[in-house]
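Course assignment 3, question 2. Fill in each field.
Student: A.L.
Task: Predict the tertiary structure for the chain below.
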Amino acid sequence: MKNKIIIISILLTLSGQLFAQDVLNKYLETAAKNNPALKAKFNEYNASLEKVPQVGTLPDPQLIFGYFIMPVETKNGPQQAKISFSQMFPWFGTLNSKENVFISAAKVKYQNFEDAKSNLFFEVKSTYYDLYFIKKGIDITLENIKILETFKRLSLIKIQAGRASGVDELRVELELNDLENNLALLKDNWFINSVKFNNFLNVDNHNDIQIPETLWIDDLQYSKQAVIDSLSLNNHQLKSLGFLKESFAFNEHLSKKQGLPKIILGVDYSAIGNAGTSPDAGKNAFMVKVGVTIPLYRKKYSAMVNEAVIQQQVIEDKKLDKVNVLETLFEKVYSKYTDANRRIILFEKQSILAKRAIKLLEKEYTNSGKNFEEILRMDKSVLKYSLELEKARADKQASIAFINYLMGY
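Answer field:
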């Protein structure tokens, strides 16, 4: 029977934790849909896509109409007007190169959006874990106040019976005043962080936030080496730099194309008056034109190519530096993660021992009226260990959330 109760208790705890995780996931969905900063990043990406068709088309053709105020005499008659139409064609592959430059630039914007989303998710999770700790702090402090009030009533009974000093009551009053002050501070912190949390979701600041009774105890899903390997592959900031380098590579190719001749095709139509003596008098004339631009000033195009090559090296150096920064950040956070695991184990043990000790002290005080100061000291320890345990749980999940952000999740 006892084993069944334990199993049922474990199942209820797990189901409660799964429900709480579902609640947090819904908050993340709301943030992804509503957060204005994230929307701005996504619209920046959409705007960058609109540049691709702008650069991938031919330049506008030229249509020129000319009227001769004093007609030019030809053997077929006076030339009265002229219409010219021409179209310039960049060298083969130039337009594709331009498109590729802006497609890569759009990919950079998209990775910036993904990084902003991952960072938003981390901020939402981190604030949620802060709120969990604050709520538990409020609950534990309220419970401790009730315990101290019980101690106060007990001390009054002992004082009236002449088996304790009046100082015991004053000591309880001092402890209660400290707890009341801490409670007020916790409530202020709850309000500040709830406003922060709801602003991330872009919802009303007075919306209730569902917090679990006990935070889930999930571990990091990946090995340390798997995380390090994932950083260089999946981190959105590194991906963004990769596409930026790709953009400069296409820019290098484009600069070479721009240093090649451009082809001009056109046609002229001349309106001839019927005043000549030739058999073709008054017959209008057509002329087909073919031309090329001559890129004589090579320094400009060479400089453009060299700039693109240097920029690629700059980006490569930035990528290497970013990898080093990310690995350093990961090591710091992983240290906090392992420390949080140790603290959870430690404070679970300490809480159990402190609660056992205070029960023994209560019995001793009830019987002899002694060691009341020790009871208060041990009660402080119980409060401390309870709060530290919840802080360690929150810190562990916050560390996991930050590692997931570094990995691009």
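Instructor remarks: The chain has a mean pLDDT of 89. The beta strands are 62-74, 77-89, 263-272, 285-292.
Grade: pending
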